[in-house]
Amino acid sequence: EVCRDKYDAVLPLVRLLLHHHKLVPFVAAVAELDLKDTQEANTIFRGNTLATRCVDEMMKIVGKHYLKVTLKPVIDEVGYPTETSFRTQPPGYPESLMDLLLRALCDNLRYYVDKVFREIVQSSISCPTLMCDVFYSLRHLAAKRFPNDPHVQYSAVSSFVFLRFFAVAVVSPHTFHLRPHHPDAQTSRTLTLISKAIQTLGSWGSLTKSKLSSFKETFMCEFFKTFQEEKFTESVKKFLDDVSSTESKEPSGVSEPVHLKEG
């Protein structure tokens, strides 16, 4: 209410509250206000509000090392010269060769998606305690706001940890210091497809027809049909349970000092 543009205040506010160990109750308070204006459970924490921006900034600051240990080894693999270019329609190829290229593309993409997905769902022990505490609050606020929707407690967490954290880091690794510079066009295309896949797999619930139809590329719809197995949904559910729990974890969350002040 004080700031004309409240988003200008988000980063210094988050740093200040982090320093005084007051971020979790603040995020819970603004998230509760945010939820009062949320009418549909499937749109929970999808907009750019004060609550979502605060959590975004918190994850960038606190989760930097977590991202590095989870994603950097896989991200470093992406972009080495391969015979298959991730283009939607390579020009001038005969149809038979296109089919071969498409199969190779899907095999290559499947390798990366499997690896990134596996690293993420097995990484809950490394998730910083502060992130877990915030996710715990968001999960219970969401369940309280929509008591008749059993899935909302999971989508409240996945909308941050998958959509706003891991998927964004995959598509823009240079902004999260996972790569030294902006990737070239081919690598960027590959990372975009991997990011789309992680977003879709991280969305709580099955891969419905409506989700599959959201892809512009026909091969992506076919590609995702291979993920319509219960084991993927169960892996996501277990991971979300773990990172939104207040149970004590090993002290492996933040092994580097958090930079709160600059200039």
How would you sum up this structure, described in words?
By secondary structure, the chain is mainly α. It has a domain at 64-87 and 94-243: GTPase Activation - p120GAP, domain 1 (Orthogonal Bundle), CATH 1.10.506. The protein has helices at residues 10-19, 23-36, 50-62, 64-77, 95-121, 129-145, 152-171, 185-202, 209-212, 218-225, 230-243. The protein is globular and about 60 Å long.
Question: Which descriptors would you attach to this protein?
Answer:
mainly alpha; GTPase activator activity; GTPase Activation - p120GAP, domain 1; globular; 11 helices; 263 residues
Q: Detail the poorly predicted runs.
A: 81-89, 206-210, 250-255
Total helix count?
11
The CATH superfamily of the domain at 64-87 and 94-243 turns out to be: GTPase Activation - p120gap, domain 1
Apparent shape: globular
Rg estimate, integer Å:
19 Å
**What is the CATH C-level name of the domain at 64-87 and 94-243?**
Mainly Alpha
Sheet-strand content, in percent, reads: under 5%
Q: Averaging pLDDT over every residue, what do you get? A: 80
- The CA-CA distance between the termini, in Å, is 27 Å
Structural class: mainly alpha
* Main sheet record: none
| CATH-level-2 architecture of the domain at 64-87 and 94-243 | Orthogonal Bundle
Tell me the CATH topology of the domain at 64-87 and 94-243. Answer: GTPase Activation - p120GAP, domain 1
Number of strands: 0
Helix proportion of residues, in percent?
Answer: 55-70%
Tell me the series of helices and strands, N- to C-terminal. HHHHHHHHHHH
